[in-house]
């Protein structure tokens, strides 16, 4: 699995690119970085870009559930970017687990996703 943080010029915006399968170790990398941004900036906006992404290992799925419960209201907007039908479905599935505005964008619309994250 590869989880990459891409720097932005906006303090409250996090760009994450994932590929392969998410692991528990990926959450051990992501969560402290996310929580640091929350402490420094309050609510954040996330671009979750899936490139050749194949889902979660079982241990990572449990980490995801714990993350969602703890940070239910810490995300203001979540742009999910991908190119598979199940990835679009994921954007609908996750809505009850967050107070964030959630929107799916096709991979070719990544610039549109970035613009949506920055809207007031």
Helical residue percent band: 40-55%
Into how many domains do the coordinates divide?
1
Say what the CATH topology is: Rossmann fold
Q: What do we call the CATH homologous superfamily?
A: SpoIIaa-like domains
Proportion of residues in extended strands: 35-45%
* Poorly predicted ranges: none
> What string, H for helix and E for strand, traces the elements in order?
EEHEHEHEH
The secondary structure category is: alpha/beta
Report the top-level CATH class: Alpha Beta
Report the C-alpha radius of gyration, rounded.
13 Å
How many alpha or pi helices? 4
Number of strands: 5
Please, could you describe this protein's structure?
- The protein is of the alpha/beta class.
- The chain has one domain: SpoIIaa-like domains (Rossmann fold).
- It is built from four helices and five strands; from the N terminus they run E-E-H-E-H-E-H-E-H.
- It has helices at residues 24-41, 58-70, 85-93, 110-118, and strands spanning 2-6, 13-22, 44-56, 75-82, 101-106.
- Strands 1-2-3-4-5 form a five-stranded mixed sheet, sandwiched between helices.
- The relative contact order is 0.17.
């Amino acid at each position: 699995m590869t989880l990459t943080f891409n720097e932005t010029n906006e303090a409250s915006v996090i760009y994450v690119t994932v590929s392969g399968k998410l692991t528990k170790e990926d959450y051990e990398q992501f969560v402290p970085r996310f929580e640091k941004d929350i402490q420094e900036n309050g609510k954040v906006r996330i671009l979750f870009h899936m490139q050749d992404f194949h889902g979660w290992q079982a241990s990572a799925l449990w980490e995801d559930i714990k993350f969602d419960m703890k940070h239910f209201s810490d995300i203001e907007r979540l742009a999910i970017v991908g190119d598979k039908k199940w990835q679009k479905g994921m954007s609908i599935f996750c809505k009850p687990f967050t107070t964030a505005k959630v929107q799916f964008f096709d991979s070719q619309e990544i610039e549109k996703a970035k613009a949506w994250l920055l809207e007031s």
